[in-house]
TrEMBL record:
It comes from Brassica carinata. One of its GO terms (biological process) is defense response. Residues 1-149 form the RPW8 domain. SUPFAM superfamilies: P-loop containing nucleoside triphosphate hydrolases, RNI-like. GO terms for molecular function: ADP binding; ATP binding. This is RPW8 domain-containing protein.
Length: 820
């Protein structure tokens, strides 16, 4: 019989709970109860270490554990009698007190003989002689997959649930409570307990990406003394991706009502006969969908529900997002799995260990799996593993099975489009912020999504913890801009996207991605140049590239629709194969260097007849001439941190002819932009114009009224802009005007009331003091954002325009983008 059989139900914890109750409620037993609490708390860590060791003890040790279990079980029954005894029955109280003293002596004698110490020594010895538990888990899973294929396991789980068992097994592999899978759980426990204890029932959540330790935290809360004292009963259920809802509902019914064994709950409404009066906690682990959660929790009486999920299913204010480990915690856990101790062994390369552990980015499951896969391996093997990990590849076959397959389960409930959007994230460099605008543009063009649907997909991926969406108060509003809002992604999730995208022959892949920055392109790409590439998305991440560097990569991409060029240099030659990408729709060029780069071979843009979106970041924009070949289908152009130079200043250059269908122009953080060419006003298709964070922009063209299709005009953070031209008031379609942080503006145009379609004005940190009488005619205006000390200029307008909201806004602008 295994040691875990003796401790079913964790009798020691139950006994402690009863003793705490006696200590607070029955004052005649308080002293003896407190002494028993001290005794049991002393032995409890050792008991738990033995319990979670998972080894088979010799018969005589099992008998000794059995004696302790029997004593604790008798103690539990004794405490139940104490709590139920009547105060007036003095003889019974005297008898029970004597029995509690006897219980104390029995436990004390057991401790004096140091039986548990001897048993623990045997446990360590057996563990030392046993095979590594990870190997046993892997063999078991392999056997399950071979035998069952896609059959269900255990009444509702799939093969993915077997991976869940593997995770749970890995959780208890280490040798003490503090060294478990979730090193650093204390902060999470405190926060979740505070949420639950400060409310009378309700729904609370534990959320986080796969492998971050959600279930471990939930299990630890279930065993926590504070939680067990606060709640009179606790139920822990694993829901899984394919739950048997009726069985789970019946289980919850029985737990809350005491009617155990009910096979089917016909009328799922427990709010009768006074409901449930005791404090009860229901922990629902591994919940995948809102539908499953609603099915299990609708019409429940007053109880506390803790839902554990990779998605954010509870209210954000009642959800704890499990964080990855700090560097010191990560190193300790990694060393524990790789070396069997929490610190680096003498003589081993410290920097190598830090670099390998660093690739896990604090994710507990990745640390455990990677550490275990390198256990007892020579340093040269570690170096090879580091190279593979840095490329987003598995360290070895077992690493792929244990980690990446586990993480892939997070994608199981995504629809095909959302899955493709997730895989697109692998096209961006690790540890870099990804502009939301680029993602939205990609998904609009490649996956044929509307902008609103693309944004909803982004939010859904964030709620499922597959990416992190930057917090910005403007995000998601009707006229929000996305070019200065970012998403980030944990490197292990990025590795998953790369792993799934890089399967199959290189020429046949839908995405051709470089996992990290290299001096040159992967050699495998050059070896297959004689065959066309099927890639629709191509991402290249290098340093400086010149003609010689591209000479071995004369590739054909007849299906490519997106090209992302990331580099770090002050000069860069565009790839020759760009001119052959005749189906290209989105081109992103980002220089991560310190100064703007000079690009060569811009002439090949002439062949990009289907290009619809162009993003240039930290580069010198080439000069435009009347001979420049028009980009006839370009709809959106973003110039970020660029040097404009004389691009728009050539006499006679008509930019409306070069970009005849441009609908969205963004110029941001371009510090040498002084004025806009007047020909920009001939862009009759321009719907959105954003000139932001341009410190030298002094004036706007006088003939802006020709922009008959313009709906959005953003001019924020242009401190030298002293006035808005009166022609702005002639824009027939303008709906949104942003002049925030234009600190030199002192007044609004006198005829602003002519803007009959204007719905929103953002003028925070803009010190306009004078009222504009015509503003009362802004009949469509429904939202004005301004500083509190200038809100008075809108008082008359607020009375004249029904439904108008005047918002005194908090400052939301920052330089977070400089963190890159």
């Amino acid at each position: 019989m295994a040691v875990t059989d003796f401790f079913a139900g964790e009798i020691a914890t139950e006994l402690l709970k009863q003793l705490f109750s006696i200590s607070t409620k029955a004052w005649k037993y308080k002293n003896i109860a407190d002494r028993l609490i001290a005794l049991i708390e002393t032995i409890q860590p050792t008991i738990k270490e033995i319990l979670y060791s998972g080894v088979e003890l010799p018969p005589h040790r099992q008998a000794q554990i059995g004696m302790l279990f029997s004593t604790l079980e008798k103690g539990h029954k004794l405490t139940e009698r104490v709590l139920s005894s009547r105060r007036w029955n003095m003889y019974r109280q005297f008898t029970l007190a004597k029995k509690m003293e006897k219980l104390e002596k029995t436990i004390s004698d057991f401790m004096k003989n140091q039986v548990l110490t001897h048993i623990l020594a045997d446990v360590h010895q057996l563990r030392a002689n046993a095979d590594v538990r990870f190997d046993r888990v892997e063999r078991s899973l392999t056997g399950l997959e071979e035998q069952l294929g896609s059959m269900k396991i255990g009444g509702g789980g799939m093969i993915r649930d077997a991976m869940k068992i593997a995770e749970a097994t890995m959780e208890i592999e280490t040798s003490s409570e503090d060294e478990k899978f979730g090193v650093g759980l204390e902060m999470g426990k405190r926060k979740v307990k505070k949420m639950m204890f400060n409310a009378e029932g309700g729904l609370f959540g534990i959320s986080g990406m796969g492998g971050v330790g959600k279930t471990t935290l939930a299990r630890d809360l279930e065993r926590d003394n504070d939680v067990r004292c606060y709640f009179e009963k606790i139920l822990f259920l694993t829901v899984s991706q394919s739950p048997l809802v009726e069985e789970l509902r019946a289980h919850i019914w029985g737990f809350l009502t005491g009617c155990e064994g009910v096979d089917h709950v016909q009328d799922w409404n427990l709010q009768y006969n006074g409901g449930v009066k005791t404090k009860k906690l229901v922990i629902l682990d591994d919940v995948w969908t809102r539908k499953a959660l609603d099915s299990l929790t609708s019409n429940l009486p007053s109880c506390t529900i803790l839902v554990v999920s990779r998605s954010k299913l509870a209210d954000p204010n009642a959800t704890y997002d499990v964080e990855v480990l700090r560097e010191d915690e990560a190193i300790s856990l990694f060393c524990l799995c790789a070396f069997g101790q929490k610190s680096l062994p003498p003589g081993f390369d410290k920097d190598l260990v830090k670099m390998v552990a660093g690739e896990c980015k604090g994710l507990p499951l990745a640390l455990k799996v990677t550490g275990a896969s390198l256990k007892d391996r020579p340093e040269m093997y570690w170096q090879g593993a580091l190279q593979r990990l840095s490329k987003g590849e598995p360290a070895d076959e077992t690493h792929e099975t244990r980690l990446l397959h586990h993480m892939e389960a997070s994608l199981a409930d995504l629809d095909e489009t959302a899955r493709e959007c997730f895989l697109d994230l692998g096209a961006f460099p690790e540890d870099r912020k990804i502009p939301v605008d680029i993602l939205i543009n990609m998904w609009i063009e490649v996956h044929d999504l509307d902008e609103a649907v693309a944004f909803a997909t982004l939010v859904d991926l964030s709620h499922k913890n597959l990416l992190t969406l930057g917090k910005d108060p403007r995000l998601g509003s009707t006229y929000a801009s996305y070019y200065d809002v970012f998403v980030t992604q944990h490197d292990v999730l990025r590795d998953l996207a790369l792993h799934l995208s890089n399967k199959g022959k290189v020429n046949r892949r839908k995405r051709l991605l470089m996992p990290k920055r290299e001096e040159e392109l992967p050699k495998t790409w050059g070896k297959n140049c004689d065959e066309e590439y099927n890639a629709e998305i191509v991402s290249i991440h290098t340093w400086e590239m010149d003609d010689m560097d591209w000479s071995d990569f004369d590739m054909d991409f007849p299906k490519a629709e997106i090209l992302i060029l990331n580099f770090s240099s002050d000069k860069y030659v565009l790839p020759p194969f760009l001119s052959k990408m005749t189906r290209l729709k989105v081109l992103v060029i980002i220089n991560n260097g310190m100064s703007p780069a000079i690009l060569r071979d811009f002439s090949m843009f002439a062949n990009l007849s289907k290009l619809r979106s162009l993003w240039l970041e930290r580069v010198h924009v080439p000069e435009l001439y009347n001979t420049t070949i028009p980009l006839k289908h370009l709809h959106k152009m973003s110039l970020i941190l660029c040097k404009i130079n004389n691009s728009f200043d050539q006499t006679g250059v008509d930019v409306s002819c070069i970009f005849p269908k441009l609908g969205d122009l963004t110029i941001d953080h371009c510090d040498d932009l002084v004025t806009l060419p007047s020909s920009i006003c001939k862009m009759t298709s321009l719907n959105s114009l954003s000139i932001t964070n341009c410190p030298r922009l002094g004036e706007l063209p006088k003939n802006l009224s020709k922009l008959q299709a313009l709906e959005l005009l953003r001019l924020y953070a242009c401190p030298e802009l002293k006035a808005l031209p009166d022609e702005i008031c002639e824009l027939p379609q303008l709906k949104y005007l942003d002049i925030s942080q234009c600190v030199s503006l002192s007044c609004l145009p006198e005829d602003i009331g002519k803007l009959k379609t204007l719905e929103k004005i953002d003028m925070r940190e803009c010190y306009i003091a004078g009222r504009v009488s015509s503003a009362v005619s802004l009949e469509s205006l429904r939202h004005v954002i301004c500083d509190e000390d200038v809100a008075f200029i809108w008082e008359e307008v607020e009375r004249a325009v029904p439904g108008l909201k005047i918002e005194a806004a908090e400052k939301c602008f920052s330089l977070d983008w400089l963190d890159e």
